[in-house]
Write a structure and sequence with these properties.
By secondary structure, the protein is mainly alpha-helical. The protein has one domain. The chain contains 4 helices and 3 strands; from the N terminus they run αββααβα. The protein has a 3-stranded antiparallel beta sheet with strand order 1-2-3. A hairpin with a 3-residue loop joins strand 1 and strand 2. The longest helix has 24 residues. The radius of gyration is 17 Å and the shape is globular.
């Protein structure tokens, strides 16, 4: 019963990620827009990207082996976080953050299984700095979940 929040947060993160990718990539067809789609320029612009590496294009690799290694790493981290949370007395915030991290990681795993790469579409620039990188909502969930687990670890369970 206690881990319901973990499950629902993970499912919500996974579904929001996958639905957003489908809408932006397949319905809005952002890949067909060379300059991207302005939402709140330059703060938020939709631009198509295929990420064969990890965040910000690090460890790019076009090999099938790299794809499967990254899938394995994502699954191992997700399982590790799940086991860690089940062996501790996590607060509700930790369960929420763990769910976000796991749901985001699984969203990117599904992309790698379906396409061979992770679909990215969000670009944010500000204050005269032109950010060349694109990311997706799964990346946001992974980052927020990991940060939350660090910040809320060891806090009194609620």
């Amino acid at each position: 019963m206690r881990y319901r929040l973990l499950f629902w947060a993970g499912l919500a993160a996974f579904l929001i990620d996958q639905i957003s990718k489908y809408l932006v990539v397949h319905v809005m067809r952002v890949a067909d827009q060379p300059g991207g789609i302005d939402i709140l320029p330059p703060l938020v612009v939709l631009k198509y990207g295929e990420n064969r590496g990890i965040n910000f294009g690090l460890f790019q690799g076009n090999s099938d082996a790299a794809r499967w290694v990254l899938i394995g790493v994502s699954l191992a981290i997700s399982i590790g976080v799940l086991i860690w949370l089940m062996r501790t007395a996590p607060s509700k915030l930790m369960l929420l953050c763990g769910g976000l991290l796991i749901g985001g990681a699984l969203g990117n795993v599904v992309d790698r299984l379906l396409y061979g790469y992770v679909l990215d579409f969000l670009n944010m620039s500000c204050c005269g700095i032109n950010n060349p990188f694109v990311f997706n909502l799964a990346d946001v969930f992974i980052f927020a979940g990991a940060l939350g687990l660090v910040l809320f670890e060891g806090k009194k369970p609620s």
